[in-house]
Amino acid sequence: MIDLTGRLALVTGGSRGIGRATAVALAEAGADVAITYVNSRRNAEDVGAKILELGRRTLVVRADLSDEDDTTHLVDAVAEQLGGLDILVSNAAGGGFRPLLETSGDQLDYAIHLNVRAFMLLTQKAAPHLEARAVDGRRSKVITVSSWGAERALPMYGAIGACKAAIESMTRHAALELGHRGINVNCVRAGVVDTGSLRALPGVEAVLEERRQRSMVDRNIQPEDVADSIAFLASDRANMIQGQTLILDGGTSLRP
Ligand SMILES: NC(=O)c1ccc[n+]([C@@H]2O[C@H](COP(=O)([O-])OP(=O)(O)OC[C@H]3O[C@@H](n4cnc5c(N)ncnc54)[C@H](OP(=O)(O)O)[C@@H]3O)[C@@H](O)[C@H]2O)c1
Q1: Range of the structural domain that residue 222 is part of
Q2: Is residue 188 in contact with ligand 1, taking CB distance under 6 Å?
């Protein structure tokens, strides 16, 4: 069993999908969990209520992570109110699905700011808080979320895919800089996950069916599957895993 009793966590983009499942999984494992949202206040408040039901403390914070000020103020505010920070899950993402050849400079900037710059700034701001809690052999954790766009070419995914490649690289470099300060930095690269926002895309049923058939687990990946891996990486059981990208796709990518 994953035990995060007494740990203090921040999950960005905790209002929906993988972030929501992660916030709940961390709370179920015993952590107090702050979540962020940008538009879905009601969804975020529902997640906060669920965390409270589990007997944990929570904070529900609006932060636009494409904005540098919001991003840099977020961590100190959360750490001050929770009383520290042990776990940062940099999960929020976005940037729009469109062909790379039809992506404007501003659209690319937005994707980079939200997906890549936010991770770097959050990690910079979190580092002193995480280090302060890494005492008596305990290690703090930063976890990022990537996708196959980091390595493969997916339709309409050029800008975000490039950002995911950057996140995976930054995960390794942040691990190099933070490992000796009691902090592990790792990434979960998920295959196609059956989230509400995915379901809103046209033609997604066919994609999910094709993924299900290729999977060795005979079902689609659920947000809770990703959350379980993140909870594991957040726990003491993953203390020796450093700077890695864990692939979570039911074996789909092993096939030619
Ligand atoms: N779904 C997949 O198939 C899949 C596969 C591999 C990796 N991933 C990765 O997993 C993570 C979560 O994906 P998901 O599908 O669960 O996402 P999602 O359902 O689309 O939710 C995105 C989250 O990010 C927040 N967000 C969006 N724009 C933001 C901004 N400007 N500032 C702050 N927060 C913002 C949203 O807040 P609001 O609710 O307030 O809008 C929401 O909480 C992402 O990093 C994604 O790239 C997803």
Answers
A1: 8-248
A2: no
Verdict on whether the full-model pTM lies above 0.90: yes
CATH number at residue 128: 3.40.50.720
Q: What is the largest CA-CA distance in the chain?
A: 52
Decide if 164 is catalytic. yes
Q: Using a 6 Å cutoff on CB, does residue 65 contact ligand 1?
A: yes
pLDDT, tens digit (0-9, with 9 covering 90-100), for 213-233: 999 999 999 999 999 999 999
Q: How many angstroms is it from 102 CA to the middle of ligand 1?
A: 22
Instruction: Find all residues with CB under 8 Å of 89, minimum gap 6, and list them.
Output: 9, 10, 11, 12, 19, 22, 26, 143, 144, 145, 230, 234
Determine the Cα–Cα distance for residues 249 and 221; give it in Å rounded to an integer. Answer: 7
